[in-house]
Specification:
By secondary structure, this protein is α+β, with helices and mostly antiparallel strands. It is 28% helix and 29% strand. The strands form 3 sheets. Strands 1-4-5-8 form a 4-stranded antiparallel sheet, with no helix packed on it. Strands 2-3 form a two-stranded antiparallel ribbon.
Length: 117
């Protein structure tokens, strides 16, 4: 009986100490997490859009000199004049056999006016 009373006294004393002002490590961690979740986040500058002198050319199929067609992946082209664009180096893939055709960067007519990449 005496041991029960002692245990109850210790338990009550511990609870009073916690309640009276002794913050536990767990409650400090929870407070820290809550403070961090409410802190403002860093903002990122808006992504720069494509310059107005460029145009996106979507994936398309072009005829090959050897016959058949090849897939040219989408890419950006830069306007040089009203009738010319600068194209990057392009790699066309022949879907029939997987062969590659490489076209060097060049000044060409706009995509809708040409048959090659």
């Amino acid at each position: 009986m005496r041991e029960r009373r002692r245990a109850a006294t210790l338990l009550a004393g511990g609870l009073l100490a916690l309640h009276a002002g002794g913050a536990s490590v767990t409650s400090q961690a929870v407070d820290h997490i809550n403070a961090m979740s409410r802190a403002p986040i860093a903002t990122v500058a808006p992504r720069a859009s494509a310059p107005p002198d460029t145009v996106w050319v979507p994936d398309r199929f072009v005829p090959l000199a050897s016959g058949g067609q090849a897939l040219v992946p989408g890419h950006w082209e830069r306007w040089i004049s009203a009738h010319e664009v600068g194209t990057p180096p392009l790699t066309a893939v022949n879907p029939a056999d997987g062969s590659l055709t490489v076209y060097p960067a060049a000044v060409r007519p706009p995509a809708e006016q040409r048959r090659e990449p």
